[in-house]
């Protein structure tokens, strides 16, 4: 396909950059930590939480549409993205708090973070740009005429097609938006229609007008992820989208087209060379933004005393850190040693004794027990060759199980040569099994790793597997620690709350 | 969950408990309050635990006399 590039004068260049999105993701974590709100029974954030997210966004939704979760386009988009990245997650009491992916995302290298962002964006399923996107005044954009549940293609596939079309275009050349619209029309003519409809008949090289509208909108999205730069021609009104210019951003497009390379150490070391922190004896940390990274900003927010001003316009911010605020961060997963190496060891001047005391009061006891979050466990089917390969690449493998930190998933897939697609998400959206007629019946052939030891002790049989689960059948398991109460708790991640009365009473007892 | 014939099974979002020695993890296994939250033992000192009930696990470990903390890397 030959693409018409634009060689004329260009105005109003907006370089592609994902800084805004990263800041908005921090805003979602801040809102969750500030509100500590319980999710509704439907699993949605309550209104005060989404209002708190909205208040912190760089491009807030208009107040007039905040009455309905389905209407709140910007809030819902960034909230869903944060959820996919597991930056936020419900705790045991269904309260939305900082999640196991936050450290993995904000403390990793920029290229890995970009890869995580791309993957999470593609995977968002509770927000769809075709029917949820709104213009700057809060009016729904509605691309195509299809009702959201009737689209022939999933939102995930639509994003894959848009990104794949973008990756076919020349890098660094200005083009009118119709270049991308034509590419998308040719690749995926059905992205805006229902299964019953036929794509419109078009001449070769002609863009579907509805796809053109979608592309005009989506280019803004792509610029926010750093994949394209935007501009306009001098003679065009700023609001006229048909003449929008864009060029594929040379750096940004690497995320779309190149695998994450094994430059983890050098990239991280470069990011940590600066000294952006000044720790003061009055329990205040001054942070010099120009010298720091988004990971520094994230760490500082984790330990800050609540209610501090994080105005993005300030080049230097001062943040009080109290023993309570530090302890709160430790209680929800802060690794003290990571904090020490990222903040204390990058201080401009000597660390005052009040901060050293904070650290020693919360210091890890090496002789005890540690918990680490944010991993994917992959069962390798006894493949010894792959196990050797993974160990050689410094991945942690225990017997047949590889433990992959969230931010290393792409590199893991690269070493493996493919991405394992069979698997489970925890918590599961739908029950992984049910207890019926005195049997625990699993939904899928593959065993979840949730409650695996109990599942194995129950001696499952069949496909999908099932096992008797009665007071009699579990009698012998008590010797191995499987009391009724323990069984009731263990099966919860499998069945949700549907457990028989004899187990339920044990659970409450 | 999705089906394929790849043979490998990926379990997205798990937490890991690391103990200083086998005796410590054995003791955690034996405690009724923590047994249910341990999904799969990996070796003498490591096990996969329920990522959605980490705060419960921490509370129960503390009740059992352990002093758990969080580590970015698996120890």
Keywords:
heterodimer; A: 509 residues; alpha+beta; four-stranded antiparallel sheet; three-stranded antiparallel sheet; 16 strands; B: 75 residues; 3 helices; 31% helix; 28% strand; disordered N terminus
Fold and architecture overview:
The complex is a heterodimer of chains A (509) and B (75). With 509 residues, chain A is of the alpha+beta class. Chain A contains 20 helices and 16 strands. Chain A has a 4-stranded antiparallel beta sheet, with helices on one face. A 3-stranded antiparallel beta sheet of chain A has the order 7-8-9, covered by helices on one side. Chain A has a 3-stranded antiparallel beta sheet with strand order 10-12-11. In chain A, strand 14 and strand 15 form a beta hairpin. In chain A, helix 1 packs antiparallel against helix 2. Chain A is globular and about 80 Å long. The termini of chain A are far apart. With 75 residues, chain B is of the alpha+beta class. Chain B has a domain of 45 residues. In chain B, 31% of the residues lie in helices and 28% in strands. Chain B contains 3 helices and 4 strands, in the order E-H-H-E-E-H-E. The N terminus of chain B is likely disordered. At the A-B interface, helix 14, strand 10, strand 13, helix 18 and helix 19 of A face strand 1, helix 1, strand 2, strand 3 and helix 3 of B.
